[in-house]
Amino acid sequence: AQSVTQPDIHITVSEGASLELRCNYSYGATPYLFWYVQSPGQGLQLLLKYFSGDTLVQGIKGFEAEFKRSQSSFNLRKPSVHWSDAAEYFCAVARSRVDKLIFGTGTRLQVFP
Amino acid sequence: IAGITQAPTSQILAAGRRMTLRCTQDMRHNAMYWYRQDLGLGLRLIHYSNTAGTTGKGEVPDGYSVSRANTDDFPLTLASAVPSQTSVYFCASSVGQGSYNEQFFGPGTRLTVL
After folding, report:
1. pLDDT number for residue A27
2. Candidate from A32, A90, A105 with C-beta closest to B99
3. Which phi and psi (to 5°) does residue B49 adopt?
């Protein structure tokens, strides 16, 4: 069965610092990959997704993610974090474009001024 | 434009009671979903509906039921609540079924079963 792992439960960074959130998946073929963000007290919002093509994907709010097949990873990055980026981030995977999403356990990001 | 609304915002419920969580969307989306969010477990799919009149079971359907009488509404019912159903529940919708379509989430319902 497919699964997705987010190794970091909680990450703290200073405002202006770079950020990388890790996501690893287990699936034989190339899955469909997603990053969602959940701001405090809110529902989830899609940041970006990867289906095929260019392995570096640009999303909203200045985020990007890179699909690395050799490492079964889809890490989320941002070059300079803003205080408003403090939230919980979920990686998700689907086997195909018609399949349901499987979410990781999430990484909580804390940003210090 | 409201998007997706959920009610109630939060609820404390005695074990054994029946409870219906309401979800309404005004985007005319065909597909709707119910997830529960638990610390350390992320979001898990309870039930889904690909279109009005149809429903399907997700990863953790036991103890829950849903109906989809029309496009806009997708209520989730706990027939006899148990403490393990304490969670935050999110409703979501998408234009069509499958991961290809972006899911839009409601603000959630925090449910405590005592």
Report:
1. 78
2. A32
3. -140, 120
